[in-house]
Amino acid sequence: MKKAELQMQETILVIFIVTIIIGIGIFTFYQLQLKSIDNSRIELEQNRDLILLATLKNSPKFSYTYLGNEENAIDTLKLLNSKLANKGFKEITIKQVYPDAQNALCNKQNYPNCNNYVVYSKKPSKITSTYIISTPVSLYFPYTNEYKAGVIEAKSYS
Amino acid sequence: MRKGQIETMGLVIIVVLLAFILVFVLQVMNKPQENMIFRSYMQLNADNLRSTILKTNACSGVSIKEELLICNDFAVTRCTNSNCNNLKINVQKIIENSLNVTKNYKFTAGNIVIEKNFNLCENTNNIYTAVKEPIPNSNVEINLAIC
């Protein structure tokens, strides 16, 4: 083999190896970017859930107001009729935690002898992960003029 | 290919590799040190829990806030006309049923103190304190801290 041919072969080998290294680099970079985008998506979703939980009790759809003043509580009677508009793949429930109540889904027939109000539910056909956050809230019962303790729970599906 | 051209190509490859390494390093360096969402969430929980406890009815027509005030002044409750132990148990129940991330807390209302495993929190920086709520016409101040 001539010297020039040998040099040509060497060059081809070097270019081949370097191409493989760059290929692996690009692939790793792409994977990391995908993971980073997915993390950002989860973080954004968590942020949205947090804002939703923080603002839901003051939403006119659910909040209890007396003479136009917001009482910083959820009117349980409103929960029976109002449902939230599209919020993506989530389930938003409001549960009474104190005093203990019968463990049942609330509707017009069993109210107020129940403890679980579903205000939004949309599940994907295939659930890969579920993220749950909840926060305490006051529940107002207009028939008895009582406040009870509850939690708003948001389950996000992906 | 001339020797000069090969050297130039080598330099280009080195620059590309360096650019990749730099991007990785910048990504690692740019990661936030602490989870701000978690901090906001815990703070929201502490504030909401304090206001929920105070608003909840201890019995018909009497809120826990009123019971705490009476307990501080007279060491009895209006609902059961007994000592304040029942009230403490009820507050404890509300707190423990409402929190899902942590179960370590300290609730104080004047001389009434309800706590669980709070000594474990005192050496950490992860204590989330609800905004203090002074009760009008009394010296009682409501505090709640979770961690």
Architecture overview:
The complex is a heterodimer of chains A (158) and B (147). By secondary structure, chain A is α+β, with helices and mostly antiparallel strands. Chain A has one domain. Chain A has helices at 3-56, 76-81, and strands at residues 63-66, 69-75, 90-98, 116-121, 130-141, 146-157. Chain A is rod-shaped. Chain A starts with a helix and ends with a strand. The mean pLDDT of chain A is 88. Chain B folds into 2 domains: 1-31; 36-146, no CATH class. Chain B is 50% helix and 17% strand. Chain B has helices spanning 3-30, 36-55, 64-74, 85-98; strands at 57-59, 62-63, 105-109, 112-116, 128-129, 133-134, 141-146. In chain B, a hairpin with a 2-residue loop joins strand 1 and strand 2. The model of chain B has no long low-confidence stretch (mean pLDDT 84). At the A-B interface, helix 1, strand 5 and strand 6 of A face helix 1, helix 2 and helix 4 of B.
* Class by alpha and beta content of chain B: alpha+beta
Q: What's the total number of strands of chain A? A: 6
Q: What series of H and E elements makes up the topology of chain A? A: HEEHEEEE
Low-pLDDT stretches of chain B are none
Span from first to last CA of chain A? 61 Å
By oligomeric state, this entry counts as heterodimer
* Major interchain interface with per-chain residue totals: A-B, 32 and 31 residues
Overall average pLDDT of chain B: 84
pLDDT averaged residue by residue of chain A: 88
Distance between the amino and carboxyl termini of chain B: 68 Å
- The count of domains of chain A is 1
Structural class of chain A: alpha+beta
